[in-house]
Amino acid sequence: MNPPVIETGRLMLRPLVLADKDPLLEFFTDPEAIAFLPTEVSGEKFAELWIQRQLRRYESTGYGLSAVVLKETGELLGQCGLIRQFVDGIPKWEVGYHLIRRHWGKGYATEAARAWRDHCFENEMAETLISLIDAGNLRSQAVAARNGMSFWKETIFKGLPVHVHRIRRAEWEQLPR
Contact, 131 vs 153, CB < 8 A? Predict the structure, then answer.
């Protein structure tokens, strides 16, 4: 089962497909863009493995990172979506986002993350939504803040220290629409 297609003012969020590997190579071969992704491989092989992991997530949970596409041009800007994670042994829905660097600073990550946040709460998937962010990744922390999230705690995730940012349903309900 694939995640739904979601449209925002500027973006279409659709399931990733293997053909997205080539457009995403710009992201996966950019040392600055992947600096906070824990990986021992990079480039084409990593891009393929990454997309295959999302396809497996679609099958197991119905969600995973989706392609972020600019509606006006059809250009693939990066990925964003909901991922089922286990944080300190507790299952949580995470909104994750990774954009190609030349698209940073244009509000696309925030727009996509908000769309997935709203989808999560509107469909009563969780009472709390999180983002797992490397302590040094200030850009992602800023996206989380614009998405209504605040720092919750530090923890170890997949062997690495991360900041957990979260928003609760009650906080989301108070946000302006």
Answer: no
Q: Is 67 exposed, middle or buried (0-12, 13-18, 19+ CB in 10 A)?
A: buried
Across 10-31, average pLDDT: 94
User: Is 162:132 a contact under the CB 8 Å cutoff?
Assistant: yes
Question: Do 127 and 169 touch, CB atoms closer than 8 A?
Answer: yes
pLDDT 10s digits, 147-167: 999 999 999 999 889 999 999
What is the longest distance spanned by two Cα atoms in the chain? 43
Distance CA 65, CA 53 (A): 9
Which residues have a Cβ under 8 Å from the Cβ of 136 and sit 6 or more positions away? 36
* Short-list 69, 128, 71, CA closest to 95: 128
Is the whole model's pTM more than 0.85, yes or no? yes
40-54 pLDDT, tens digit each: 666 778 889 999 999
